[in-house]
């Protein structure tokens, strides 16, 4: 992969674009999520119709997962192709950034998947949890967007630190 530096630039650009798409989808989900007035009551039972925030949340989850997979593949490629040790002590910075990317990825994916699942249609008597209707709180998707951005920055930082260490 070192023979084609343009390939590395394109992969980093792809990771960045996927992160921007996921963050944008989160911001759009925040704007389109259901509000309190959208919940309909029929006596004791409630109903919440499906809305565009569900599809946007799924799109954000898929883009985030794809960016994480591509980033980890790009980070691991030099170690597999050259026989380098993945856990070399000289690789502290890339490993720390990779660990931080996984922590922020896990937090963002959990937050995003739970919020997205709440935006599915919740029919009467079959709500999101225990037959009750739940809606996503204000700012949940904004926090997920910030975590997605953080994840992408950690991935790109780890890629750059790995490439710098290997080329030396």
From TrEMBL:
Broad class of the protein's primary localization: membrane
Coiled coil, from the record: none
Leader peptide range in chain numbering: 1-24
Domain of life: Eukaryota
UniProt keyword Transmembrane helix, yes or no: yes
Gene Ontology CC terms: endomembrane system
Subcellular location: Endomembrane system
Pfam families: DUF1218 (PF06749)
Keywords of the record: Membrane, Signal, Transmembrane, Transmembrane helix
Membrane topology classification: Multi-pass membrane protein
Chain ranges passing through the membrane: 52-75, 96-119, 139-161
Keyword presence, Membrane: yes
Family: Belongs to the DESIGUAL family.
Record's protein name: Uncharacterized protein
Species per Swiss-Prot/TrEMBL record: Coptis chinensis
């Amino acid at each position: 992969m070192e023979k084609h530096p343009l390939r590395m630039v394109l992969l980093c650009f792809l990771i960045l674009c996927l992160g921007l798409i996921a963050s944008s989808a989160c911001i759009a989900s925040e704007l389109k999520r259901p509000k309190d007035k959208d919940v309909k009551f029929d006596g004791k039972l409630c109903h919440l119709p499906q809305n565009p925030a569900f599809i946007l949340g799924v799109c954000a989850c898929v883009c985030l997962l794809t960016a994480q997979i591509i980033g980890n593949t790009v980070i691991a490629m030099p170690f597999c192709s050259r026989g380098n040790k993945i856990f070399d002590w000289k690789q502290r910075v890339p490993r720390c950034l990779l660990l931080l990317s996984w922590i922020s990825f896990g937090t963002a994916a959990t937050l995003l998947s739970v919020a997205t699942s709440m935006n599915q249609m919740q029919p009467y008597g079959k709500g999101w949890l225990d037959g009750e209707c739940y809606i996503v709180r204000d700012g949940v998707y904004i926090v997920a967007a910030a975590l997605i951005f953080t994840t992408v920055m950690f991935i790109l930082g780890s890629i750059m630190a790995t490439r710098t260490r290997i080329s030396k």
